[in-house]
Specification:
This protein is an alpha/beta fold and 254 residues long. It folds into two domains: 64 residues; 137 residues, Alpha-Beta Barrel (TIM Barrel). The protein is built from eleven helices and eight strands. α1 packs parallel to α2. It is globular.
Length: 254
């Protein structure tokens, strides 16, 4: 059985003070929640504060990006060693906003994934097609290509179980989620590709979560699909009550 993961991607929102204010309200709301794993990905400037505040809670914390090298003359970058040194144990890789605005390539996602595994960080690798590719019937080809590149030469490690987030670019921040059917189709493709690259066991055990306009009013229909192992939530994770409600909706299906 794959344990569901509900994760918050805060993107470029929240100062440290705002992050801590969120946690003051949010942590008591999910204190007794055990069915799903919960993770928060704050900005780099809030990261150490959020890690400290989430110590001794059930909430994991991760960075939204990192470099693949340990150190070097790379202005503005943060390395896996630096993240690990402050107790950061999760990492978001290959988000479409990084691919689009920071020119992250499939090769870089692959190098970062290998670095994450080498440092015992738990990676969430984002893949997903643009509207143009979907309309051209290329969704499957895009997903297979992104995964083939990301997983190339990767050896899975029990310390760094890989989660794949299916995030169709056209559903991110638009208010209209992909349908459960579209998501299930994509997740089946993703699971096959993971199995082809990393073996049947990894294909079975790898969590495949969905991101793109997940909200309190659509989470229940998404989590009802056996192929959807959780959600990566952007906008609706910024308010503590909204994010807790998303987690509770999933919970109420038990
Ligand atoms: P959204 O973002 O929930 O605001 O659509 C999801 C994401 O980009 O991870």
């Amino acid at each position: 059985m794959r344990k569901p993961l509900i994760a918050a991607n805060w993107k470029m929102y929240k100062t440290p003070t705002e992050s801590l204010a969120f946690l003051r309200d949010f942590l008591p709301l999910v204190k007794h929640h055990t069915r799903d794993d919960i993770a928060i990905f704050p900005t780099m400037s809030s990261l150490a504060y959020v890690i400290e505040a989430c110590q001794d809670t059930r909430v994991d914390v991760g960075a939204q990006t990192m470099h693949w090298l340990n150190e070097g003359p790379y202005t503005g970058q943060t390395s896996p060693t630096m993240l690990a040194s402050i107790g950061c144990d999760h990492i978001l890789l290959g988000h479409s906003e990084r691919r689009i605005y920071a020119n992250e390539t499939d090769d870089m996602v692959n190098w970062k994934l290998k670095a994450a595994i080498a440092h015992g960080l738990v990676p969430i690798v984002c893949v997903g097609e643009s509207l143009e590719k979907r309309q051209s019937g290329l969704t499957e080809a895009v997903l297979r290509w992104q995964l083939a590149c990301a997983l190339n030469g990767v050896t899975p490690s029990p310390n760094s179980p890989i989660t794949i987030a299916y995030e169709p670019v056209w559903a991110i921040g638009t208010g209209s989620s992909a349908s459960p059917k579209q998501i299930s189709e994509a997740h089946t493709i993703i699971r096959h590709e993971v199995a082809a690259r990393l073996g049947d066991e990894a294909g079975e055990n790898t969590r495949v979560i969905y991101g793109g306009s997940v909200k309190a009013d659509n989470i229940a229909s998404l989590m009802a699909e056996p192929d959807i192992d959780g959600a990566l939530v952007g906008g609706a994770s910024l308010d503590p009550h909204s994010f807790a409600k998303i987690i509770q909706y999933a919970y109420s299906l038990e």
